[in-house]
Specification:
Strand content: 15-25%
Strand order of the largest sheet: 3-2-1-4-5-6-7
CATH superfamily: NAD(P)-binding Rossmann-like Domain
Structural class: alpha/beta
Shape: globular
CATH class: Alpha Beta
CATH architecture: 3-Layer(aba) Sandwich
Largest sheet: 7 strands, parallel
Protein backbone atom coordinates (compact mmCIF):
# COMPACT_ATOMS: atom_id res chain seq x y z
CA UNK A 1 0.00 0.00 0.00
CA UNK A 2 1.20 3.56 -0.65
CA UNK A 3 2.19 5.67 2.33
CA UNK A 4 -0.92 7.80 2.85
CA UNK A 5 1.03 10.29 4.95
CA UNK A 6 3.84 10.93 2.47
CA UNK A 7 3.63 14.49 1.11
CA UNK A 8 6.14 14.05 -1.67
CA UNK A 9 5.15 16.21 -4.65
CA UNK A 10 3.09 18.61 -2.56
CA UNK A 11 3.73 22.35 -2.53
CA UNK A 12 2.40 24.01 0.61
CA UNK A 13 2.11 27.73 1.31
CA UNK A 14 2.28 28.49 5.04
CA UNK A 15 1.63 32.09 6.02
CA UNK A 16 3.49 33.22 9.11
CA UNK A 17 5.69 30.18 8.67
CA UNK A 18 8.97 31.46 10.06
CA UNK A 19 8.23 31.17 13.77
CA UNK A 20 6.02 29.48 16.34
CA UNK A 21 3.18 27.29 15.17
CA UNK A 22 3.82 28.17 11.52
CA UNK A 23 7.40 26.97 11.77
CA UNK A 24 6.28 23.80 13.52
CA UNK A 25 3.93 23.13 10.62
CA UNK A 26 6.65 23.83 8.06
CA UNK A 27 9.07 21.50 9.84
CA UNK A 28 6.56 18.64 9.87
CA UNK A 29 5.55 19.05 6.23
CA UNK A 30 9.15 19.14 5.03
CA UNK A 31 9.92 16.05 7.13
CA UNK A 32 7.18 14.29 5.16
CA UNK A 33 8.77 15.36 1.86
CA UNK A 34 6.61 18.36 0.96
CA UNK A 35 8.08 21.54 -0.48
CA UNK A 36 7.00 24.46 1.68
CA UNK A 37 6.78 28.16 0.93
CA UNK A 38 6.85 30.18 4.13
CA UNK A 39 5.87 33.84 4.21
CA UNK A 40 6.18 36.58 6.76
CA UNK A 41 7.19 40.18 7.27
CA UNK A 42 10.63 39.70 8.85
CA UNK A 43 13.47 38.93 6.41
CA UNK A 44 15.77 37.87 9.25
CA UNK A 45 13.29 35.36 10.69
CA UNK A 46 12.49 34.01 7.24
CA UNK A 47 16.18 33.50 6.47
CA UNK A 48 16.78 31.72 9.78
CA UNK A 49 13.81 29.44 9.18
CA UNK A 50 14.87 28.76 5.61
CA UNK A 51 18.37 27.83 6.73
CA UNK A 52 17.05 25.44 9.36
CA UNK A 53 14.44 23.78 7.15
CA UNK A 54 16.78 23.26 4.25
CA UNK A 55 16.35 22.80 0.52
CA UNK A 56 12.67 21.89 0.70
CA UNK A 57 11.84 25.39 1.98
CA UNK A 58 11.35 28.60 0.00
CA UNK A 59 11.02 31.82 2.00
CA UNK A 60 9.15 34.83 0.61
CA UNK A 61 8.72 38.16 2.34
CA UNK A 62 5.01 38.96 2.29
CA UNK A 63 2.39 40.77 4.36
CA UNK A 64 -0.93 38.92 4.22
CA UNK A 65 -2.75 42.17 4.88
CA UNK A 66 -1.69 43.42 1.44
CA UNK A 67 -4.62 41.71 -0.27
CA UNK A 68 -4.06 43.33 -3.66
CA UNK A 69 -0.90 41.23 -3.98
CA UNK A 70 -2.40 37.83 -3.19
CA UNK A 71 -2.96 36.79 -6.81
CA UNK A 72 0.62 37.80 -7.63
CA UNK A 73 1.94 35.76 -4.68
CA UNK A 74 0.11 32.64 -5.86
CA UNK A 75 1.31 33.18 -9.43
CA UNK A 76 4.90 33.56 -8.23
CA UNK A 77 4.71 30.29 -6.32
CA UNK A 78 3.13 28.49 -9.27
CA UNK A 79 5.80 29.79 -11.63
CA UNK A 80 8.93 29.40 -9.52
CA UNK A 81 8.14 26.54 -7.11
CA UNK A 82 5.36 24.43 -8.57
CA UNK A 83 1.60 23.87 -8.55
CA UNK A 84 0.18 24.84 -5.15
CA UNK A 85 -1.48 21.86 -3.45
CA UNK A 86 -1.93 23.05 0.13
CA UNK A 87 -2.65 26.44 1.69
CA UNK A 88 -2.17 26.81 5.44
CA UNK A 89 -3.66 30.10 6.67
CA UNK A 90 -1.62 30.48 9.84
CA UNK A 91 -0.56 34.15 10.02
CA UNK A 92 -2.55 36.01 12.62
CA UNK A 93 -2.75 38.95 14.98
CA UNK A 94 -3.58 38.76 18.68
CA UNK A 95 -5.11 41.43 20.88
CA UNK A 96 -5.84 41.10 24.58
CA UNK A 97 -7.58 43.77 26.60
CA UNK A 98 -10.94 44.24 28.31
CA UNK A 99 -13.67 44.48 25.69
CA UNK A 100 -14.81 47.91 26.88
CA UNK A 101 -11.30 49.23 26.27
CA UNK A 102 -10.93 47.81 22.75
CA UNK A 103 -11.33 50.44 20.03
CA UNK A 104 -13.11 49.91 16.73
CA UNK A 105 -9.80 50.37 14.96
CA UNK A 106 -8.12 47.63 17.02
CA UNK A 107 -11.03 45.27 16.46
CA UNK A 108 -10.97 45.92 12.71
CA UNK A 109 -7.21 45.36 12.51
CA UNK A 110 -7.57 41.90 14.03
CA UNK A 111 -10.44 41.01 11.70
CA UNK A 112 -8.49 42.27 8.71
CA UNK A 113 -5.48 40.09 9.48
CA UNK A 114 -7.18 36.97 10.82
CA UNK A 115 -10.27 36.78 8.60
CA UNK A 116 -10.41 39.12 5.61
CA UNK A 117 -6.84 38.33 4.55
CA UNK A 118 -7.55 34.61 4.88
CA UNK A 119 -10.60 34.88 2.63
CA UNK A 120 -8.71 36.93 0.04
CA UNK A 121 -5.69 34.61 -0.11
CA UNK A 122 -7.87 31.51 -0.17
CA UNK A 123 -9.88 32.91 -3.05
CA UNK A 124 -6.66 33.51 -5.01
CA UNK A 125 -5.48 29.96 -4.28
CA UNK A 126 -8.79 28.43 -5.32
CA UNK A 127 -8.52 30.03 -8.74
CA UNK A 128 -5.55 27.77 -9.48
CA UNK A 129 -6.59 24.74 -7.42
CA UNK A 130 -10.11 24.28 -8.76
CA UNK A 131 -9.13 23.82 -12.43
CA UNK A 132 -6.75 21.05 -11.31
CA UNK A 133 -9.46 19.34 -9.26
CA UNK A 134 -7.42 18.87 -6.10
CA UNK A 135 -6.04 20.78 -3.14
CA UNK A 136 -6.33 21.36 0.58
CA UNK A 137 -6.97 24.55 2.54
CA UNK A 138 -6.26 24.42 6.27
CA UNK A 139 -7.20 27.35 8.50
CA UNK A 140 -5.56 27.77 11.89
CA UNK A 141 -8.35 28.73 14.27
CA UNK A 142 -8.12 28.71 18.07
CA UNK A 143 -9.61 27.23 21.20
CA UNK A 144 -11.10 30.70 21.71
CA UNK A 145 -13.50 29.72 18.90
CA UNK A 146 -14.70 26.74 20.96
CA UNK A 147 -15.40 28.33 24.33
CA UNK A 148 -15.30 31.69 26.02
CA UNK A 149 -12.03 33.31 26.98
CA UNK A 150 -11.94 36.75 28.53
CA UNK A 151 -10.38 39.90 27.05
CA UNK A 152 -10.00 38.55 23.49
CA UNK A 153 -13.23 39.72 21.86
CA UNK A 154 -11.68 40.63 18.51
CA UNK A 155 -9.41 37.60 18.37
CA UNK A 156 -12.10 35.09 19.33
CA UNK A 157 -14.55 36.70 16.90
CA UNK A 158 -12.07 36.35 14.04
CA UNK A 159 -11.16 32.76 14.88
CA UNK A 160 -14.80 31.76 15.29
CA UNK A 161 -15.58 33.33 11.93
CA UNK A 162 -12.82 31.19 10.40
CA UNK A 163 -14.83 28.11 11.32
CA UNK A 164 -17.87 29.49 9.51
CA UNK A 165 -15.72 30.30 6.49
CA UNK A 166 -14.25 26.79 6.53
CA UNK A 167 -17.67 25.14 6.60
CA UNK A 168 -19.10 27.41 3.91
CA UNK A 169 -16.22 26.86 1.51
CA UNK A 170 -16.36 23.12 2.17
CA UNK A 171 -20.07 23.07 1.33
CA UNK A 172 -19.56 25.23 -1.73
CA UNK A 173 -16.43 23.77 -3.32
CA UNK A 174 -15.61 20.30 -1.95
CA UNK A 175 -17.24 18.80 -5.04
CA UNK A 176 -14.37 20.30 -7.08
CA UNK A 177 -11.83 18.12 -5.27
CA UNK A 178 -10.65 20.77 -2.80
CA UNK A 179 -10.88 20.05 0.92
CA UNK A 180 -11.32 22.72 3.60
CA UNK A 181 -10.55 22.10 7.26
CA UNK A 182 -9.54 23.96 10.39
CA UNK A 183 -7.26 23.21 13.32
CA UNK A 184 -7.93 24.76 16.73
CA UNK A 185 -4.73 24.83 18.82
CA UNK A 186 -4.93 24.79 22.58
CA UNK A 187 -2.27 26.22 24.87
CA UNK A 188 0.90 25.86 22.80
CA UNK A 189 4.41 26.37 24.12
CA UNK A 190 6.51 29.31 22.99
CA UNK A 191 9.25 31.23 24.76
CA UNK A 192 6.84 34.06 25.59
CA UNK A 193 4.04 31.73 26.69
CA UNK A 194 6.31 29.75 29.02
CA UNK A 195 7.64 32.98 30.51
CA UNK A 196 4.07 34.12 31.21
CA UNK A 197 3.24 30.76 32.80
CA UNK A 198 6.26 30.84 35.09
CA UNK A 199 5.30 34.34 36.21
CA UNK A 200 1.75 33.22 37.03
CA UNK A 201 1.90 29.77 38.69
CA UNK A 202 -1.78 29.86 39.65
CA UNK A 203 -2.85 30.34 36.03
CA UNK A 204 -0.48 27.62 34.88
CA UNK A 205 -1.94 25.19 37.42
CA UNK A 206 -5.48 26.13 36.42
CA UNK A 207 -4.80 25.50 32.72
CA UNK A 208 -3.11 22.17 33.33
CA UNK A 209 -5.81 21.07 35.77
CA UNK A 210 -8.43 21.20 33.01
CA UNK A 211 -6.17 19.70 30.34
CA UNK A 212 -6.60 15.91 30.49
CA UNK A 213 -3.26 15.31 28.73
CA UNK A 214 -1.57 17.13 31.62
CA UNK A 215 0.79 19.23 29.52
CA UNK A 216 0.98 22.16 27.14
CA UNK A 217 1.11 21.49 23.43
CA UNK A 218 4.03 22.15 21.11
CA UNK A 219 4.22 23.55 17.57
CA UNK A 220 5.10 20.01 16.47
CA UNK A 221 1.71 18.81 17.76
CA UNK A 222 -0.02 21.29 15.47
CA UNK A 223 2.32 20.37 12.62
CA UNK A 224 1.30 16.74 12.90
CA UNK A 225 -2.39 17.57 12.72
CA UNK A 226 -1.91 19.83 9.69
CA UNK A 227 0.23 17.19 7.97
CA UNK A 228 -2.56 14.65 8.46
CA UNK A 229 -5.19 16.98 7.01
CA UNK A 230 -2.92 17.76 4.06
CA UNK A 231 -2.27 14.09 3.33
CA UNK A 232 -4.19 11.44 1.43
CA UNK A 233 -5.04 9.87 4.78
CA UNK A 234 -7.60 12.68 5.13
CA UNK A 235 -8.87 12.55 1.56
CA UNK A 236 -12.52 12.14 2.67
CA UNK A 237 -12.37 14.75 5.43
CA UNK A 238 -13.68 18.24 4.72
CA UNK A 239 -15.46 20.95 6.67
CA UNK A 240 -14.22 19.94 10.11
CA UNK A 241 -12.50 21.69 13.00
CA UNK A 242 -9.87 19.53 14.70
CA UNK A 243 -9.03 20.66 18.25
CA UNK A 244 -5.39 19.98 19.11
CA UNK A 245 -5.46 20.88 22.77
CA UNK A 246 -4.76 17.81 24.90
CA UNK A 247 -8.46 17.67 25.70
CA UNK A 248 -8.59 21.18 27.15
CA UNK A 249 -11.83 22.03 25.36
CA UNK A 250 -13.57 19.04 26.98
CA UNK A 251 -11.68 19.06 30.29
CA UNK A 252 -13.24 20.14 33.57
Amino acid sequence: MPNLFDLNGQVALITGGATGIGFGIARQLTALNATVVITGRSPDKLLAARNELGERCVALENDVREKAGHAELIERIETTVGPLTTLVNNAGMHSKKPSLDATDEEFQAVLDTNLLSVFSLTRAALRVMIPRGSGSVINISSMSALYGLTQVAAYSSSKTALLGLTRTLASEYSHTGIRFNAVAPGFIESAMFLQIMEADPARKARILSRTPAGRFGTPADIGGAVAFLASNAARFITGICLPVDGGNSIGF
